[in-house]
Structures are given as C-alpha cells and as structure tokens.
Amino acid sequence: MTIPDPAPAGDTDRNAPRPSTLPLVEVIPSSLLDEPLAYIFADHVRQRMICSALRRFALSGKVDRREADMVVTFLSHDVPLDHEDEEMDLFPAVRRRALREDNLGVVFARLLEDHRRAQSAVDKIVAELSVQSAEVVQVSSAARELMQAYASSESGHLAIENGIVLAIARIRLTRGDLGAMARRMKARRGVAH
Ligand SMILES: [Fe+2]
Ligand SMILES: [Fe+2]
After folding, report:
1. What is the pTM of this model?
2. Which structural domain range is residue 63 located in?
C-alpha cells in the first residue's frame, strides 16, 4: 500500500493535525458495568473512534501531541482491559452456553489470534507516538502503514465481536452469567460492587 506524503505546510487538509482539548473518546460511566454486554459494545464504539483517529494520523503523517497522548493512553490501558474482559469472561461464558450449531470454535480461534496480533501492532504504535517530545509528532511511513493495517484489521474484528459474539451472548447468557461478568469487570477496574 502506498501512502501519500504529508501535505506541505499551509495546505488546507482535513487530515492535518488539529490541536484540540476535546477528548477523542468519552469515559464510559462505571454504572454501565452492571450491563456488561452494553459496556463492551460501548467500548467497541470507542475503539472505532480511535481507529478513525489512527487513519487520520496515517494520512497526515503528523499528530498533535495531545491527540498522540490520548491514543497512547487508550491503546495501552483500555484496549488490554477489553481483551481481558473478552478472554477471561465473555468468550468463556458464551462458549459454555453456546449450542453446537452456533459453530463458534473457528470464530473464537480467529478472535484470539487477532488479539495476539493486535497487541504487537499496539506496542509498535504506542512506541512511535510516545518517544517524541515535540508538540507535533512526525509519524514514520512504516508506522503510518501499520496504523492503517491495524485500523482495518480492528474493523473486521469488531464486526465479528458485535455481530456474532455479543449477538449470541444477548440470547444465551443467563442473568447469573451477566452478574458474574459484571463483578469481574468491576474488580478488574477497581470499581466497588
Ligand atoms: Fe472487543
Ligand atoms: Fe476483541
């Protein structure tokens, strides 16, 4: 894939870095942890927003320092929590309740492999956005390609989690399953029951 060079200074470019005090993503209210499937879905909306930001960074080749810091925080704090929620709680619960005809073996294998690969991409993106202390971070062409690749791979991953795993979870998980998930997800975040 060829990524165009950043626009020269002075060009009007909607992909250019834009200093902003607004957060790229909202904090999810901890009260939503009582509805763990809704919480995970809300987190996926935030992940899509971060992927949009990464696509913008990849096209521009430059990132405002504050936006870089917000993405680093999200990728190094929130994404690992989502992976733990899924690998420790959501996937095992759905696996326990799924019917044979749900055919989820291949789906879970693909999702776990995605997580493993995503972690390696996340580590590299975080390193790229963290090392520079300048107000505007210049992104290398390798990192720009990685950001595009990560964003498009995550888009497919989220579609499977939302469209298959969460859809089946809503039908098959019991009230007891959801209560146990809520307790564990709260504990993971240090939220009192
Ligand atoms: Fe997820
Ligand atoms: Fe996932």
Report:
1. 0.87
2. 33-188
Q: Tell me the pLDDT tens digit for each residue of 99-112.
A: 888 889 999 999 99
Q: Is 23 among the domain residues?
A: no
Question: How many A from CA of 4 to the centre of ligand 1?
Answer: 31
C-alpha 95 – ligand 2 centre gap (Å): 15
**Nearest by Cα to 37 from 191, 174, 187, 193:** 174
Q: What is the DSSP string of 68-79?
A: HHHHHHIIIIIH
Q: Does residue 45 fall inside a structural domain? A: yes
CA-based max dimension of the chain: 59
* pLDDT tens for each residue of 110-169: 999 999 999 999 999 999 999 767 789 999 999 999 999 999 999 999 999 999 999 999
Q: How far is the CA of 80 from the centre of ligand 1 (A)?
A: 9
Domain count, the chain: 1
